[in-house]
Amino acid sequence: MGKDESMDTSQPDQALHLVENFVGVGIKVSFNGSSETREMVQLSGGQKSLVALALIFAIQKCDPAPFYLFDEIDAALDAQHRKAVADMIHELAENAQFITTTFRPELLESAEKYYGVKFRNKVSGITAIFNA
């Protein structure tokens, strides 16, 4: 099929043909506001985490879900970026519920409630932790 020929996407076999031609989405980012951008493969683990979170938060602003579940999203971040992510989650939590796991204090400082999970003698225990 040439460039100028139209394709009827209502036909499943032709729609499949379109999917087969899809090669992916590229993301280029700049962390310093300059015109210099880098591709995802060039980023550190923490930078990749920030890009992924920025994408999730942008989608949340446009098409919010009632809750989000994040597992150690702050593991690769430094303290400054963990605090920024915690502040963003705290702001967005006005319209959605966020459940996160972390080993770091920054997310806990802005949390309304948090729980400790301990594993002893092959049994997990959950304890509510209260701010003093």
Automatic annotation (TrEMBL):
List the top taxonomic levels of the source.
Answer: Eukaryota, Metazoa, Ecdysozoa, Nematoda, Chromadorea
Report the transmembrane regions from the record. Answer: none
Question: What is the native source organism of this protein?
Answer: Necator americanus (Human hookworm)
Q: Which SUPFAM superfamilies match?
A: P-loop containing nucleoside triphosphate hydrolases (SSF52540)
Task: State what protein this is by name.
Answer: RecF/RecN/SMC protein
**Residues annotated as domain RecF/RecN/SMC N-terminal:** 42-123
User: Which Pfam families has this protein been placed in?
Assistant: SMC_N
Domain of life of the source: Eukaryota
Task: Give the matching InterPro entries.
Answer: P-loop_NTPase (IPR027417), RecF/RecN/SMC_N (IPR003395)
